Design the sequence.
């Protein structure tokens, strides 16, 4: 006990600095937790880092002063020192406010370590009855590893474990609401500075018990998020190792029919599919030199497709338009001959 008294004397040597760091860091967390600004904004992230720095500095000072010991009971801790039990929980809560997709796995793992430190200390002082979560750190001590083996994580496929887990969540939620209601009653007296030692001690005890429920919920959600993040990293690494497959050529259209012979005779029952693409058609006509010129169809091959009589009439009209004397004379003689001879004159094939 003499050593403990000396510790209290050391802590009293500079209580303002230590308490000031805790209060400022706590205030930053409450402001960030209740703000409407985007969490990823620069101003919020700067305040989060500042608050984490303050709380970590206060935690180092508490470790140097050796305020808490495993050989003590909760009643032996001074009322002024009870609030420093919250340092790891506040550090973890502010760490969870950090953003960064590339660093998300490291962030949640760091926050989980803070929450576990807080829960272990509360378990040592028997502040609240709860089951300590399993240890995921590979570098854990043998005692922690044995604790993890003694309390394995419940399998999701076990319906009994799932029901027990759900009931534990409901109980934690009920306890949290009850503790928050009691905290609201004594907070005004503590904030005004008129609370006596008993009211202040009750206030910090309620805060510690409330944070126990918060940390248990946070660790449960962190474990689920870590599993998802690790699976995502594995998928990314697997995708990076896979060779790049060459691009496949486009497949030609095909028809599924009941009878291939019937389809060839009667058709497929719907309009035929194109046998070539637009690019293939364009390339084929370009090689033949039969490309349309700005919307005007080419005249290549027109003469081959027209009827001989129509071609002869067209030639006559063209010559008449060109004022050919021979054509004009022949046309006039033909008109004169038709005037003196009736239609069908000289036709002896149908005389009988």
Sequence:
């Amino acid at each position: 006990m003499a050593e403990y008294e000396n510790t209290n004397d050391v802590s009293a040597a500079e209580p303002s600095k230590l308490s000031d760091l805790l209060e400022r860091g706590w205030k930053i967390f409450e402001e960030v937790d209740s703000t409407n600004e985007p969490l990823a904004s620069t101003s919020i992230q700067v305040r989060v880092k500042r608050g984490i720095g303050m709380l970590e500095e206060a935690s180092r000072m508490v470790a140097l002063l050796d305020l808490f010991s495993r050989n003590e009971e909760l009643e032996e801790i001074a009322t002024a020192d009870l609030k420093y039990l919250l340092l790891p929980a506040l550090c973890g809560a502010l760490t969870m406010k950090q953003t960064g997709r590339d660093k998300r796995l490291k962030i949640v793992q760091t926050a989980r370590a803070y929450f576990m430190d807080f829960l272990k200390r509360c378990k040592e002082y028997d502040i609240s009855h709860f089951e300590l979560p399993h240890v995921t750190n590979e570098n854990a001590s043998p005692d922690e590893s044995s604790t993890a083996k003694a309390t394995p994580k419940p399998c999701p496929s076990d319906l009994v474990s799932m029901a027990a887990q759900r009931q534990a969540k409901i109980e934690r939620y009920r306890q949290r609401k009850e503790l928050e209601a009691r905290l609201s009653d004594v907070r005004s007296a503590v904030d005004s500075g008129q609370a006596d030692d008993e009211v202040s001690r009750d206030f910090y005890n309620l805060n510690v018990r409330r944070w126990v429920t918060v940390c248990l919920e946070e660790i449960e959600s962190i474990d689920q998020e870590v599993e998802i993040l690790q699976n995502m990293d594995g998928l990314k690494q697997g995708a990076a190792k896979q060779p790049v497959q060459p691009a496949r050529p486009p497949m030609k259209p095909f028809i599924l029919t009941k009878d291939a012979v019937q389809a060839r005779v009667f058709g497929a029952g719907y309009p035929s599919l194109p046998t070539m693409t637009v690019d293939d058609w364009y390339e084929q006509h370009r090689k033949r030199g039969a490309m349309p010129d700005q919307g005007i169809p080419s005249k290549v091959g027109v003469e081959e497709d027209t009827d001989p009589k129509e071609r002869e009439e067209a030639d006559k009209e063209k010559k008449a338009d060109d004022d050919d004397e021979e054509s004009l004379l022949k046309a006039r003689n033909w008109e004169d001959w038709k005037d003196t001879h009736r239609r069908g004159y000289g036709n002896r094939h149908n005389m009988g």
In short: The chain has 14 helices and no strands. Residues 1-16, 138-152, 300-304 have pLDDT under 50 and may be disordered. Residues 239 and 277 are 34 Å apart (CA to CA). The longest helix spans residues 197-241.
